[in-house]
Amino acid sequence: MKVSRRQPVVAGCDFIKCVVVIICLLLLSCSEEGNRVEEPPSAFNEEDIQHGENLNFYLYNDYACSIQSVSITESSVRISGEYVGEGNFFLGEITPYMDVVKLKESPYKVRLLNSLFQIELERFVEREGFLYDRLLSKWAIFKEGVDSDYLVSHAHHADETFATQHLSPFKITSKKGMGGIIPNQYISDLTSLNISSATINVCITHFMHLTPRTGDIKHTYGGKSYYMDENYLRNSIDRVLLAATKERNISVAAIILLEPASKCTDTELGKILQHPDNDGGTYTMPNMTTPEALNCYAAALDFLAKRYCTIDNRYGRISHWIMHNEVDGGRDWANMGMKPVTVFTDTYVKSMRMCYNIVRQYDSCAEVFASFSHSWTERSNPGWYTCKEMIDLLNAYSRAEGDFQWGLAYHSYAQDLTNPCTWNDPNATYSMGSQFVTFKNLEVLNKWILAGENRYKGFIKRSLWLSEAGVNSRDYSDEELLKQAAGVAYAWKKINALEGIDGIQWHNWFDNEVEGACLGLRKSLDTTYDGEAKPAWYVYQKAGTEQENEYFEQFLPVIGISDWDIIENF
Question: For residue 23, is pLDDT > 70?
């Protein structure tokens, strides 16, 4: 649907009429001023507001000095850069539990003697009771002041990481994927539907312990030992990963999640990993504010990468890493309290970077994805952020602190998740300022991901997965099942035609009443329905085959179109 804006028209008026109109408008304005309701107070405290302002200044400031490269070898860190001006300059190491805009002194400083410098340091150092890996740090230039040092460059993360092995990248052969795969009797669907990509939930607090339990695997990181529930890993993760990656060569992304302490079996572990400002939500943002918490979170990521990034694929393989869930809805899905968007994104980037740097040691092809809902410029729910503002901040951090290979894991549900007729979404428009991005206007995402300014290093297209998206059947009547099937056909035609979209991981495999919508290709996996295939399943099966066009023709009148020429150029 093309959107046109009607411009106001002013007819010819004489001078007196114009004066009268202006006076009336002024009087009205004064009246409104007197009756205006004050804006509600900010949900953020003054410290967080100032923190956000400082981060914004840092991100968009044009510093004269710069760190030009950081490379990680097997045993060392090499940093090169340049400073300009008079005075005493230092190289500062900023660990993830430090805040770059709150430092009053150059941390772990090294005196710089030449304006152009290259410094090599030991990679592993004893620090705060842990064997700290400087792979996790970023580096900046500080200048000595009268009372304190002050920042004169952006901080810079590692550009290159030493890899202990080299895995071949997974080639996605089809845009068809499955979201949230689980062990079940319909595992053959992955073959029948020609699935090429998938996602799996990996909740760290489901398998990690601080003290050993029967059957646990010991994992040592940073000089401290942690314990992993092998039985859980084998039955909940290994089993389905092996079926997907080893048996069918499917590319799988792990969705990294952490429960709040109140939901954890190991409550002490939960207390360490829970963000200190967490005040609820289904999942928590990880705590990276102390050396203990940082080491614990890094240990979990290191264990997962070491286990699921192997040459022999002995446990199954994770090739992509989706960091948390719908972070524009951090209040619900990655809670760290009410924070300005830049403060929240700063922490989120730390989590993304940590995973990226750790995993790339084991798989130099691995990517991390940022996860978002279907909002674009409109908040999906009160207290949430918009996707566009967070994505813009991701770009800003990449420009300021060195780019890394992140992509988008977008959830392009219908505007109303319960309405399968996504082609009618009123606020999903063909504009980069659209309120929502749904199946109807995927062209917006496609245009964004292909734009040169949004590419990795300026020339490599970032990956774009629709990692959780589907359409609902309101009930199991023939009419509603037909609408859902039409929604599947419509979504596929859009996705398959847009070159910037790498695939969709359909959500869900099975209907799940807890979600409040029946989004599955199959009915509920229970004693009543036993996962019976819905019409949507057969649409998805035919998608991408020689039977697609003939089979999809039945859905044209449902949608109200005469053909599948539905891609909008704007």
Answer: no
Domain boundary (107, 138, 161) is at 161
CA proximity to 112, closest of 138, 137, 159, 144:
144
In 3D, which of 67, 220, 68, 77 has the Cα closest to residue 135? 77
Domain assignment of residue 516, yes or no: yes
- Regarding whether 417 and 382 lie in a shared domain, the answer is yes
* Cα angle 527, 530, 533; round to 5: 155
Adjacent-strand bridge partners of 533: 522
Question: Any alpha helices (H) in 259-362, and if so which ranges?
Answer: 267-273, 291-308, 330-333, 341-359
Pairing of β 66-72 and β 160-161: parallel
Query: Helix H segments across 156-244?
Result: 189-192, 230-232, 239-241
Instruction: Check if the beta carbon of residue 544 is closer than 8 Å to that of residue 507.
Output: no
Give the tens place of pLDDT for each residue, 126-179.
999 999 999 999 999 999 998 899 999 999 999 999 999 999 988 899 999 999
Is residue 7 scored above 50 in pLDDT?
no
pLDDT greater than 80 at residue 24 = no
Question: What domain count does the chain have?
Answer: 2
Exposure string for 400-419, b = 16+ CB within 10 A, e = fewer? bbbbbbbbbbbbbbbbebeb
Q: State the first-to-last Cα distance of the chain, in angstroms, to the nearest integer.
A: 11
Shared domain for 148 and 294, answered yes or no, is: no
- Name residue 328's amino acid: D
Q: Which residue has the tokens 């949230």?
A: 180
Q: How confident is the model at residue 513 (pLDDT cuts 50, 70, 90)?
A: confident
Nearest to 333 by CA among 372, 363, 364: 372
Taking residues 402-422, what's their average pLDDT?
97
